[in-house]
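Researcher: Next sequence.
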Amino acid sequence: MYFDFTVLTKYLPFFLPAAWMTIKITTLGILLGLGLGLGTAFLRISQKRLFSLPARAYIYIIRGTPLLLQLLFIYFGLRSVAGFDALTSATLALGIHNGAYIAEIFRGAITSISDGQMEAARSLGMPYSRAMIRIILPQAFKRAIPSLGNQFIIALKDSSLASTITINELLLKSQQLASSNFMMMEMLFIAALFYLLYTAIFSKTFRFIEARLDVGGAQA
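Model: Next structure:
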């Protein structure tokens, strides 16, 4: 099979709008996932079953079913009810999916903090909520950074599933171009370059954050 490297620079500009769409979906999904994840983590560690049981059910269902199934369920199942467009559906699916995993990341980080720190804060008259925000969460966040970085990279790659509901991201753009120029491998190669670039940027950013926050020292 002949691979024509000369066409890569020619078709690269055609991928730029799709590359932006990939970043847009990923960013929105991550932001939604962070909010859901942190909120669910608090419910998950609650001593009240009224709060912890729904959080457990959400995590179990989302982690136990494929993202593609969740995406199709939201797009086809809720579009007629709520009027969601493809972008909204993809953002919701990616955010809800990531939220379940991020909740477990935050839960693990929070519970890894010594109980003595919360007890010390409460003995000084600090309310539970303030102790959690000022004492526990900053330490938990530092410990969660490596796992969050991995999850964000997974979210980036999962965004390619949005092509199944006709969102013009990198994977769908490569397939569209290949259907007209019959250069499937070349178009997929360009899409792969963008994903590798984004992954490198994410990895470098989180390594920088880990270094600035001294994550290794926090976990020692």
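Model: Residues 40 and 182 are 47 Å apart (CA to CA). The mean pLDDT is 90.
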